[in-house]
């Protein structure tokens, strides 16, 4: 057995030695390149998009992109990509009223001046967006201009003045007979919808039978933890208080702690809101209909509706409401000031503007203007100029743009949903005709086209035909295309991306086919990249709407756009 092992071992060593001396030969081995890799290589082989536009055939056509101002000023990837692929850019937000107009009404134009300089350095045209809109407005400032005038107590009310007593109506009255811990005498109101990590603002009017302090919290009844607004120092006269807090957990109870205050407390005009909204969380906070929903306990404390005349009636003195004519005059001046300021720094470089953005109502009458009248809640940046200046608000805006800009500037009225099944496109055209009947020339109409790959192609063609018939310059002003049904990037597949590419190509080819060359202002991509799925993603969150991915990889839509542009040569 041992000998056999030695023989086998010797043979193995000899075999290894012989093999080590043999010539190395690489055996032939091939594998087909995956089709997905081939497809991506084909897309990546395309040139920058701007190279596909024949400027001899289309000298006035502008190929544009929407950007964040900081992305361009910081000169990163977005800056380089924009300069390589586009010839005109528009700022998504930073040229709007709320970005420019400060709390005191002054205009901060320094950043705008910087982006103009950067655009000039790269021969990048800058399209102005926008001078008049219902969103993106410094609504706090504008509302302050038309707020009632309050005169001190004892002033002569004069014409239109209303004497406002410091006490009128009802309040909630609370009593506490002796000093205990603050939480041992409480008044509460159960609430819903309070979110975690969210800022809330409390406004309340209060007074007491003597000086002292009370505390106010938001509480979770599941474990009695809470977040505090802090305390308020009461005097014997009503005072208005404004307090804020940021929640650290979900809360469901508003609670007043007054165990350390001995005496009688009156509270009124309780308003609790999430910062940035106008929705009241506490109903009936003026107590004019009683104290339904309020309850409490501890130390023989009481709570009830006060006697009539013990509520808060305002700071006292005289309130004079501005008339509709006065409001119109004040806001017309505010609009002129804004447009004049914008033109003072842009007119040497910016030659085209969205002067009026999104004027038309969505429903039920698409021939009517949008309005804030009757809306239960307005956003912090929402202000409807047309509700105060009337139907001629666009007339004024265009007249101011002409007055302070260049005589040959191209001025647009821009809106979304014109490719829809309703009458919005016809309604906008009718409004443009009205504006011109008042002596204000409108050079162009912008159609935003935030659409999906499932959009009705016949309706798109019909929209183009209606717009072409106006004789105006036509701009596809904010093009981006989703996949439909709110499909997010994580759920998208190759077939969906090809459908998206086909729709991008269709929209561009039909624009060149239907809109006469003399009326072709251009096309702007509103979101060149897919929208990220994160909290601060403000536009079509998580949808793959661009022609590049979030990581700057070209998609099939890039190829489709390039081919659509190239066909126009």
UniProtKB/TrEMBL annotation:
Task: Give start-end ranges for the coiled-coil region(s).
Answer: none
Q: Where is the GH10 domain?
A: 44-564
Q: Does the keyword Hydrolase apply?
A: yes
Per its UniProt record, what InterPro entries does this chain match?
Answer: Galactose-bd-like_sf (IPR008979), GH (IPR017853), GH10 (IPR044846), GH10_dom (IPR001000)
EC number(s) from the headed UniProt entry: 3.2.1.8
Q: Which reaction does it catalyse?
A: Endohydrolysis of (1->4)-beta-D-xylosidic linkages in xylans
Offer one Pfam family short name for this entry. Answer: Glyco_hydro_10
SUPFAM superfamilies recorded for this chain? (Trans)glycosidases, Galactose-binding domain-like
The residue range of the signal peptide is none
Domain of life, per lineage: Bacteria
Entry keyword set: Carbohydrate metabolism, Glycosidase, Hydrolase, Polysaccharide degradation, Signal, Xylan degradation
Q: PROSITE patterns of this UniProt entry?
A: GH10_2
Report if keyword Transport is assigned.
no
The entry's family comment says: Belongs to the glycosyl hydrolase 10 (cellulase F) family.
The name under which this protein is listed is Beta-xylanase
Instruction: List the lineage, top down.
Output: Bacteria, Pseudomonadati, Bacteroidota, Sphingobacteriia, Sphingobacteriales
